[in-house]
Amino acid sequence: MILFKWIIDLYLALILLLASKKKGMLKRIRKALVSLKEGLSQEGVETREMFQIYSRYTQGKATKKEMKVANEQLRDIVKSLGLGVLLVLPFAPLTLPIIVKLGKRFGVDIIPSSFKKPEDD
User: Fold this and answer.
1) CA 55 – CA 72 distance, rounded (Å)
2) Fewer CB within 10 Å: C terminus or N terminus of the chain?
3) Close Cβ partners of 56 (under 8 Å, ≥ 6 residues apart)
4) Which sequence ranges are marked TM in the entry (predicted)?
5) Residue 34 lies in a domain
6) What's this model's pTM, rounded to 2 decimal places?
7) What Rg value do the Cα atoms of the chain yield, rounded?
8) pLDDT of 67-118, one tens digit each?
9) What is the domain count for the chain?
10) Is residue 100 a contact partner of residue 110, using CB atoms and an 8 Å limit?
11) Residues ≥6 apart with Cβ < 8 Å to 61
12) pLDDT tens, 5-27?
C-alpha cells in the first residue's frame, strides 16, 4: 500500500508540475486531488473492515453477507494495484482515460468503487 501511495504522489506531482504552466487547470486539479484524497481515505476504511471480516471468518464468525463485502473489497484492491501499474507507464495521463473508456466499452470494470461517482454505478 505504501508503494501505491508513493506512485500516486509521484503521478500527482507530475500533474501539478504540468498544470502549473496553465492557469485554468489549477481549479480542476484541486478538485481532482480532493476527490483522490477522499477515495483513498474510503479505500483505507473499507480495507480495514475487510481484514476484520477475514479475521472473523477464520474464527467461524463471519456471515455470508460480510464475506461478500470483504471479497468485493479484495477485488477493489486488485483493481487499484492494476491502476497503479498503469500510472507508471509513459504518458499515463493520456493512456489511463483511454483504458478506462475501453474498459467501459467492453464491460470490464477497472475503477475501484471508492473512486466512482454515484451515477457511474
Assistant:
1) 16
2) C
3) 62, 66
4) 6-21, 81-100
5) yes
6) 0.65
7) 17
8) 999 999 999 888 888 777 777 777 777 777 888 888 889 988 888 877 777 6
9) 1
10) yes
11) none
12) 767 777 777 777 766 666 666 67
CA distance 119 to 1: 28
Which domain, by its residues, includes 85? 2-112
Closest CA relative to residue 8, chosen from 76, 101, 88:
88
In a domain, 120, yes or no: no
Each as own residue / partner, the long-range contacts of residues 87-90 (CB below 8 Å, 24 or more positions apart, any chain) are 87/7, 87/8, 87/10, 87/11, 88/7
Q: Which grid coordinates belong to 98?
A: 483511454
Q: Is residue 76 part of a domain?
A: yes
Indicate whether 69 belongs to any domain: yes
Q: Which amino acid is at 46?
A: E
